[in-house]
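User: Is it possible to get a 3D structure for a protein together with its bound compound? The compound here is zinc ion. I've pasted both below.
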Amino acid sequence: MPAWLCVTCGVQQRDSAEPPEVCPICADERQYVGWGGQRWTTMAEIAADHALEVREEEPGLFGVGMQPAYAIGQRALLVCTPHGNVLWDCTSLLDDAGLARIGELGGIAAICISHPHFYAASVEFADAFDARILLPRADQEWIQRPSPRIELFEDEAEPLPGLTVARIGGHFDGAAVLHWPAGSDGRGALLTGDTITVVQDRDWVGFMWSYPNYIPLDEATVLEIARRAERFTFDRVYGGWWGRVVVQDGAAAVRRSADRYVARLHGERP
Ligand SMILES: [Zn+2]
Ligand SMILES: [Zn+2]
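Assistant: Yes, that's possible. Here is the predicted structure of the complex:
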């Protein structure tokens, strides 16, 4: 019995003989149903013309993405620590070469995910590597493929010693970031997916309720996101796509981007 994957968002559903009617992730106003209507696929079908790509981002950090890009097109990140590895976010494909490569890098002890758009094939990854999946209770309703490996946390959890996953809200109530203090040569890195998205002008970040449908957040929420991020020490911000990285001075980028956003909400122009 296949675990169907939605073609538009790449999120895997629970096992069922027939695919579900709708993908709840895409039916939500933050996403959209593909222009050709709801379509489903299987991992075997995706594997026929896609491969998993694992590429070093900096010492101890590897990007894990799909080639060519698939669905929302995110790339996940594998954070390597002396206590094991955390996969931050996920992809829709785990192929044999990717499995072997991640295994060489020490496998996966825990999976943490920025928000439901990137749940992807996380249960499949967890099963392959005997990993825990840590998700915020606030987004429990968005879990599409239940698994005994999923553990819910409230505001913060430590997937491995030294790493913190924290719920900071905004894009989803449970939208989270992962703090990796050893990143950026010990100056710290914040892995954000699109909870805090690194924009094309990569000295800046953005915040949205919906990215594809351009629905903004309100002032209080944007300021709260910045406030919750501020308790971490970090230099670098890793967004959810290849190259979407604030290379340095990331904490200041988050602060000035929140201030710019709020100024615009008030009708102020630079
Ligand atoms: Zn979907
Ligand atoms: Zn999203």
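The chain has a mean pLDDT of 97. The longest strand covers residues 51-58.
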